[in-house]
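Fold sample X.
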Amino acid sequence: MRRSTLAVAALTLAALLALQAGEAFARAGSGGSRGSRSSSAPARPAPTSPTNPSSPSRQLSSPTPAPAQPSRGWMGGLMGGLAGFALGGLLGSMLFGGFGHGFGGGIGLFEILLIGGGLFLLFRFMSARRQQQQPAYATAGAPYDSSPSYGSAYGGDAPRETATQEPTAPAVASDLDRGLGYIRSMDPTFDPGFVADAARGLFGDVQRALTARDMTPVSGRLTSRMYTELTEQCDRLRAARQTNRMEAMNLRTADVTEAWQESGQDFVTVHLAGSLVDYTVDDASGALVAGAKAPQEFEEFWTFSRSVGPNPWRLSAIQSS
């Protein structure tokens, strides 16, 4: 039994390692540096709100209060349990002869009256407890008067209509907004849309360079660390005599989700999502090694960095979702 368990575990581990090896030869893999945020997950695109929280509203009538939920105290639960226990015990004893052992083999009129009286008192007590726990009307103690108000400083007799305007909460800058502001303070011409467009174009160029197993054409748009890691991926493909192919690329979104400054560097992260066909083949036989020749969804975060100020951006990290 122990040997079969160890064999199954070994086969499972081997399958996992084979799967990871296949994924290593997929499109441009994760790596690079995001500065102090390298170990944290990138921020995802913020959901759009369908409402405008700053728009004022008029309150012309009292809102309908939510009905108060009745609350049962611990005594209610306890007494309910006791009642169920007593009733169950009575029925069980009558059906299976429990009283026969305790009262000499049968139930007399006195015992029946005694048990009935006890149950009557118990149910009466429970009923009184439930009446005490009935909830009051939800409007009791409400901070407004639901009845119409008459008379005013102007001598009117009509019901008073009150228009209230909700105070507008001050806008709170998000982490992204603060980061974009820091970058603009050193480079007033900075446009986050430019970085998003650059990421969109570089995505296809990097994949084509990976297929050619040569990162030289895009070296000027990569940091030295990112260039080294992608070049090593090309070297592994070449050593294994395999080629990674990318087809039918459909990049649907490219949105900036993070921006910050640290140690004299600007950082901007772009969320990329879409679909593509990504697979790896053997150079000699053309056999499929990894991936699939069918479209698949992908989601990645590409981070760009530069020295603070109006300097060129370079890809510094890739992270898969």
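Fold sample Y, listed below.
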Amino acid sequence: MSTLPANPQVVTHELRCVHCGKVQETADRMFRCTQCSELLEVVYPEWADAPREFALRLKEIWRERRGSSLPENASGVWRFRELLPQVDRQHIVTMSEGNTPLVPLKKAARELRLPNLLVKHQGMNPTGSFKDTGISAAITMARAEGFSWVCCASTGNTSASVAAYAARAEMKSIVLLPAGQVTAGKLAQALEYGAHVLQLRTDFDSCLKVLHEVVRKFPAYLLNSLNPYRLEGQKTVAFELMEQLDWRVPEHVVVPGGNLGNSSALGKGFMELHNLGLIKLLPKISIIQAAGANPLVRTMRENGGKELIRVNAETRATAIRIGNPASWRKAVSVLRNTAGACEEVSESEIAQAKAELGAEGIGCEPASAATLAGLKKLAAAGFVKAAETVVLLLTGHMLKDVDYMKQAPGQSLLGPMEADSDTVITTLEKIYARH
């Protein structure tokens, strides 16, 4: 007999190894399995026997909360708290994250002959990236466990989010960044929110390695995507997306791939909805990487996802410039469970896709544009078909990397010129003639 009532409540959770399946009695500071040292994931054993009434009631509760002014209901994460780890309301750290727009594309849809092409713009979160949904959940757990310091290694977006949410929680934050590899906008955010920022002469992967040692010796709570609670927050994007689509499952969801926590979280969210009976089908979740930072692409092509092939990452799409992604096993599982694809795109393909999104009034950082660039290849290969609904996940706001635009070809930035109407009109006539 089920232990879950028809009127849903928050249920207990466990931490389970993604590789050997061992359930952990307690999590170590690095959230690694005590048996095989692989990553952990949050599981909810009570859901196995959940009655249908449980799932149906969830939809009603979530819909009702959208009209509430309570902070936990205004959050696009905590509004779905029945499917999150249990935590007292007083510990929740939120800035109304989530609740991001789902926008149909027009020009790209016509070009690709995909009339049902949409973007879910996570760059509209409080600090301008998808990281906020995950950090809200993970820092809430840190607060509940009594930590006063939190830490992360970052290519920029995580540092901004960690710093902001730590400030809201009246906690101190430590950020390790690869020197010279983080955009000015992202660095400015971390500094603005009061983080203790340490720039290291290395890349992101080595920053994360150093952080492992720091966490073992310093009383700070780890907020990178190794932390399974962060992925619990990020999975709520799947819940929100389904509400926006009136619970009609898209055939495809396309995600940029860096450290691979986001694709892992998204897949987990969809699979939980499916297991609870809230959706009947799973979308194909495809992951797009930059050609110069393509460890998952190479891993899938060269050994079928059995062992990670690390690379020395190089790409101007700094948010996905990661050669040793922590969540690669979880991402492989998502690709297999959803029958998704893994593709790589060049720097020029990313730049072109970013320009095309901008031409539709949608600004995003370069890593986000990799999704449209990858979709073009998936459509050309016949993996994505014309009648299918496709959602591109845009992970960061365009203002995260304004320097990229200064170097992009074809920008219509003219001058300086003389400040008189004749000069301006002559210039405009030339522009008009070209169009």
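Sample Y note: The first strand starts at residue 14 and ends at 17.
Also: Residues 15 and 42 are 5 Å apart (CA to CA).
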